[in-house]
Design brief:
Blueprint: E1 12-17, H1 23-34, E2 37-42, E3 54-58, H2 63-69, E4 74-80, H3 83-90, E5 97-103, H4 109-120, E6 127-131, H5 149-152, H6 155-171, H7 174-192, H8 196-226, H9 231-265, H10 271-301, H11 309-329, H12 333-336, E7 342-351, E8 361-371, E9 375-382, H13 383-387, H14 398-403, H15 420-435, E10 442-447, H16 448-455, E11 461-463, E12 468-470, H17 475-484, H18 493-507, H19 514-526, E13 530-534, H20 537-545, E14 564-572, E15 585-595, E16 600-611, E17 623-632, E18 636-642, E19 645-646, E20 653-657, E21 661-670, E22 674-687, E23 691-699, E24 708-716, E25 720-725, E26 730-732, E27 735-742, E28 746-754
Parallel strand pairs: 1-2, 1-3, 3-4, 4-5, 5-6, 7-10, 14-23, 15-24
Antiparallel strand pairs: 7-8, 8-9, 10-13, 11-12, 14-17, 15-16, 16-22, 17-21, 18-19, 18-22, 20-21, 23-28, 24-27, 25-28, 26-27
Helix pairs in contact: 1-4, 7-8, 7-9, 8-9, 9-10, 10-11, 16-19, 17-18
Length: 758
């Protein structure tokens, strides 16, 4: 490019418009002054520029507009590191507009000279590109910008900085606190999966995180206390600390229980090992009490405003109740484990796939000998081993005699009462007569479902005698296979199979999961798949208080008041079809109760049976169910129907039991792939008087039965008002409906008030 220099003879005026004052502006101003040009600086582009001969617009995108507005003025648009914007103006082809793009961030005097040469020259070229330096170099001249400390320490900077520092000072503890919460969740998740190694690693991190949180929070806590805002952070920190203690105690407890199980399984214990068991049991009790206290503290400290507070509180309360239950039972371990003595427990194995009133058909039984903290021996017997030795005639219950065509009564059918104590006494009677067995300290009845619940804690158990691997899922099928394959009375196949399994259970006792074992036992006991009776009265009282003894409840009002009506219902099945049809049976219980204007209580009990057996072939088939219903003794019976047809009165047996109940029994048959509805109408002899009253309904679950659906409907007359109840029903007009399942014995309370009779 050829440069032409124009000599300025008259003093001209130039305008420099800039957005940010910098080194380039200072150099440009200095060079123009040396050329006898008056220089005017402005951060804004003025509306009129007609008084200026030259206009230097730095990073100003409106340069084209001014060039069009003032076609006779020389306008120079200088862009710094904006090549696209510069070239965009070139395309406008305005003769009085020159465009310069400078690439770089440090400008020399030579760069400014080139800018002026290009600006003042008569060349027709409109675009100039200059490449400046990209690194700053110190210039020792008066144009070097100085560091403006006043601006750096202005209010606009200091105030936000102080606020940020104050915030960090007071709320920095939230970072480790949140991390502690995260770690607590990770420990909980690991413990839930029984990953003890991972939980141990997280526990160490949690402990350190809690310490850091507390140290940082101690700096800002006085400020929080000053404004009465310390409660929430105090509670959150304490929750994490208590959680650490609970998790640590749980880890210690798990190891302790494993050691106790190992020592109990050891048959050759010395005195020191026996003392160690007693010591470990004491430590176990102390740990459980401490966990219970810490969990109670956590529940009380959980902030209600947190979204997960309610759910977490309920879960922790449930765990606390389980710990309280364990603490209640631990003092009886010396008794159960026969400290300094020897005890024999009768084990009754009831197949609830062939349901009977007391839990199921008794196919096998066993005797567990416990001596001084040791599982000394377990013997399994086939029930036919015992029944084959009975020489006396024992008259059977009428339904067994009638529907099973059995003239004699044997141990296998002895659990024909829904009360386990009665069945235990009957079993002792038969074993004394049949095998001269006596001297039991108590008895456990376990259904097939209970055994499955317990086996879950062992995982897979290998039986070398049968080359079989047994677990929770295949136990029933394998047991049935060895029990029924080429079955003959007196066969030892089932006895040998169960004996082999029980021996392997004892051998693998120490490898079982303590958590799954405890949950499996509790689930079985709570849901009446396992019941226990002890000859020791103190131990039995504790079992009764937990509703684990399988007894019939005595219907009595829990409150001392005149206007209290106690209602009772106990539906009981007895499979007398010599099959395992209960595997395919579903049962829905619907009880409709109406309190009329006179205070009388009218019932309509509906039981819907559904048989999903694929055909009439064993193990399924027709469900021959001798169905009994236990009602209050003053109940007045009405219509009894099956599928809308009245049941023949000659087929119905009505009896009084224990001066407390009235039982109604008759045969109900449900063929495969069909349903049948049984309906019993009755009303109570008692009625509500005027004024406030309490309605109390006890519904008991049959031992060994499935967790059937239960619908409770209560309808009251217009002069009867429901004040309160101990359950959460759906309410519509004068009726309440409650849907639940009969997983355990239920007791319902309804407070009412009745006006005068209408």
């Amino acid at each position: 490019m050829k440069l032409k220099v124009e000599t300025l003879e008259d003093k001209q005026k130039s305008l420099i418009v800039y957005r940010k004052l910098g080194h380039l502006i200072e150099l440009l101003k200095s060079k123009l002054a040396k050329k006898n040009v008056e220089v005017y600086l402005s951060p804004l582009l003025p509306k009129k520029i007609d008084v200026f001969d030259y206009c230097f617009l730095i990073d100003e995108k409106r340069a084209a507009e001014k060039a069009i507005e003032y076609p006779k003025k020389n306008i120079v648009a200088i862009f710094i590191n904006q090549e696209k914007a510069a070239k965009k103006l070139v395309h406008r082809r305005l003769k009085n507009l020159k465009i310069i793009n400078i690439a770089g961030n440090f400008f020399s005097e030579m760069d400014v000279d080139r800018i002026l040469w290009f600006s003042f020259s008569q060349t027709k070229e409109q675009y100039l590109s200059i490449y400046a330096l990209t690194k700053s170099k110190p210039f020792k001249n008066k144009f070097r910008p100085s560091l403006d400390l006043k601006k750096m320490v202005s209010k606009k900077v200091i105030v936000p900085l102080i606020l940020v520092l104050l915030f960090l000072y007071h709320f920095a503890f939230l970072v480790p606190l949140s991390f502690s919460g995260y770690l607590s969740y990770q420990v909980y998740s690991a413990l839930k999966k029984e990953d003890w190694e991972k939980s141990g690693n997280y526990l160490r991190w949690l402990n350190n995180s809690n310490k850091i949180t507390k140290e940082i929070y101690s700096l800002s806590r006085p400020t929080f206390s000053l404004f009465s805002a310390a409660i929430l952070p105090d509670n959150l920190i304490e929750i994490n600390e208590k959680a650490y203690l609970v998790f640590n105690e749980l880890t210690v407890t798990n190891q302790n229980v494993k050691e106790i199980a190992k020592l109990i399984a050891n048959k050759s214990k010395n005195q020191q090992e026996k003392q160690e068991i007693a010591f470990r049991v004491k430590v176990l009790q102390d740990n459980l009490k401490q966990m219970e206290e810490n969990l109670s503290t956590i529940v009380s400290k959980i902030p209600n405003q947190l979204p997960v507070a309610k759910q977490a509180g309920q879960k922790i309360s449930e765990i606390t109740q389980n710990l309280s239950l364990a603490n209640k039972l631990i003092p009886y371990l010396d008794n159960i484990l026969a400290k300094d003595t020897e005890k024999k427990y009768l084990l009754i194995f009831a197949n609830n796939m062939e349901l009977r009133p007391g839990g199921g058909f008794i196919g096998s039984f066993g005797v567990l000998t416990v001596k001084d903290y040791t599982f000394q021996e377990i013997k399994i017997y086939d029930v036919y081993d015992a029944d084959g030795q009975l020489v006396a005639h024992i008259e059977p219950p009428a339904p067994i005699k009638k529907y099973l065509n059995m003239p004699h009564w044997f141990l296998r059918d002895s659990n024909f009462s829904p009360d386990f104590y009665e069945n235990y006494e009957q079993a002792k009677f038969f074993l004394d007569k049949e095998m001269n067995m006596r001297g039991f300290a108590g008895s456990f009845l376990m259904t097939t479902t209970a055994v499955q619940n317990i086996l879950e804690s062992f995982g897979n158990i290998y039986l070398p005698d049968y080359n079989e691997t047994i677990n929770q899922k295949n136990f029933y099928l394998k047991t049935q296979y060895y029990a029924e394959n080429n079955f003959l009375p007196g066969s030892i196949q089932k006895k040998s199979f169960l004996g082999s399994l029980s021996r392997q259970v004892i051998l693998n006792w120490e490898n079982a999961s303590p958590k799954k074992m405890a949950l499996g036992l509790k689930k079985s006991l709570d849901e009446k798949q396992m019941v226990f009776y002890a000859e020791d009265p103190d131990l039995q009282e504790a079992i009764d208080s937990l509703f684990w003894s399988g007894k019939i409840s005595q219907p009595k009002c829990i409150q001392e008041m005149d206007n209290c009506v106690v209602d009772y219902l106990y539906p009981v099945d007895a499979n007398l079809g010599a099959n395992k049809a209960n595997f395919f049976i579903n049962r829905l219980i619907d009880i409709k109760i109406k309190i009329d204007e006179n205070g009388e209580i009218i019932h309509s009990l509906t039981v819907n049976f559904k048989n999903d057996s694929p055909n009439d072939v064993f193990p399924g088939g027709t469900y021959h169910n001798y169905f009994q219903t236990y009602l209050p003794k003053d109940a007045l019976l009405g219509d009894i129907t099956q599928d809308g047809t009245a049941v023949d009165q000659s087929e119905i047996t009505v009896e009084e039991k224990n001066s407390l109940f009235k039982t109604v029994g008759f045969m109900v048959r449900i063929r495969p792939k069909t349903s049948s509805i049984v309906k019993i109408d009755y009303k109570l002899g008692n009625a509500f008087k005027k004024g406030k009253g309490l309605y109390q309904l006890i519904i008991q679950k049959q031992i060994g039965s499935a967790n059937n659906d239960l619908v409770l409907r209560l309808d009251v007359a217009k002069n009867v008002y429901i004040l309160n109840q101990n359950f959460s029903p759906l309410v519509k007009d004068n009726q309440i409906v409650y849907n639940t399942n009969l997983s355990a014995d239920k007791i319902f309370f309804v407070e009412i008030i009745k006006d005068a009779d209408k």
